[in-house]
Amino acid sequence: MAVDLLLGLQWGDEGKGKIVDVLTKKYDIIARFQGGPNAGHTLIFNGNKHVLHTIPSGIFHKTALNIVGNGVVIDPVIFKKELENLDKNNIDYEKKLLISRKAHLILPTHRLLDAASETSKGKAKIGSTLKGIGPTYMDKTGRNGIRVGDLELDDWKEKYQALTQKHLKILDYFNIQISYDLKELEVEFYKGIEKLKSLQFIDSEDYLNTAIKENKTILAEGAQGSLLDIDFGTYPFVTSSNTTAAGACTGLGVAPNKIGNVYGIFKAYTTRVGSGPFPTELFDKNGETMARVGHEFGATTGRPRRCGWLDLVALKYAVQVNGVTQLMMMKGDVLSGFDTLKVCTSYKYKGKEVTHLPYNIEPENITPIYSEFKGWEADLTEMTTEEELPKNLLDYIDFIEKETGVPITIVSVGPDRKQTIIR
Ligand code: GDP
Ligand code: IMO
Ligand code: MG
User: Fold this and answer.
1) Can you give the pTM of this predicted structure?
2) Which of 4, 13, 114, 139 is catalytic?
3) Which phi and psi angles does 363 have, rounded to 5°?
């Protein structure tokens, strides 16, 4: 089948960028299908670290084409910075980075609206990355958005002005003090637009479907994670796009019967950045150790990530919603040195034991029920084959495979491209 999907099964930051980079050599095209610069995808190879926000994670390879799909929202200011980073690394992207005309643009006022909306929520704030994601998708579904293809038309600046004026009125409604200089923001915005216009715009759905007919191999790259999906995540503490498998169909214009493998990426434990329920969250030394050893700070905002045990109830839910065919387990190395590991296998929900993810997983309703596993001491980071992995880790892997019914085909033992064990 022509299009494989790669997506996160938890609350984001599972290590999607690393695995896309590892798998790119097998694909002709890498296509991002949703989200925007709220994402931060980290790639490490040859001793260098790169963080991508909008650009697909196949960009560092010579041969693959990289497409920013229609489901993505692009901030021209951040996009320009990403391109400048590629320039610094002598990556020749002009011919291998293509942008969908149907992708929507994040305007400076979308970012302001995001900030105003978050401030107005007080303690109930989502913990947004404040990149303007919510307001941009609202304009998309409200049929007011500006798309990349509009930049080829004469009247796009009028459209821009009209939408910006409307946004300023909405900002007034919020009646919240936010200091900004719109003129300054617009200077950066227009510079970003010019840079964006130097790239090739395409009708990406046509491009991809033609590629499928020509038997090209395509990997669709997701952003965020299944528990941040607008429909299936922990609403309202979610992002504003469909991060799950169906989002790849709408975000690229690829039909469901063209989807092949669905690679589900998960951490051997769980992290979350931003607000919202997290049943297995730890507030003890174990959580601190995960955060410290795993360097759990957001790649986009630098915020500390909340850490906790692996939640199999939530993982099985994500496997189901996405139709995952292969699991890839990240950051097993971070768990070396724990005496005992816990995995949540069911919840006590309103006094009853349940094995599915209920509607409301706020802490007052949920107590996780755990199975315990023996930890391992060995440092995994130099290991290159499955045979070297400690038995207790293999038991941990075995348990997850049995519970989910899906094979774990990659075990990642460090952030570098090379620290990847393929099973
Ligand atoms: P993404 O958003 O899913 O691409 O993930 P991020 O890049 O936001 O976060 C994953 C973090 O974990 C990054 O800092 C990676 O360099 C790092 N990482 C990825 N895989 C591994 C691994 O197997 N072990 C360790 N220790 N770090 C990893
Ligand atoms: P990657 O692709 C982790 C979280 C934010 C917040 C919520 C809504 O790197 O895995 P938004 O900016 O979309 O309004 O924020 O979603 N969030 C992420 N958390 N990884 C991400 O992306 C995220 N993108 C958004 O922290 O809780
Ligand atoms: Mg990330």
Assistant:
1) 0.97
2) 13
3) -55, -30
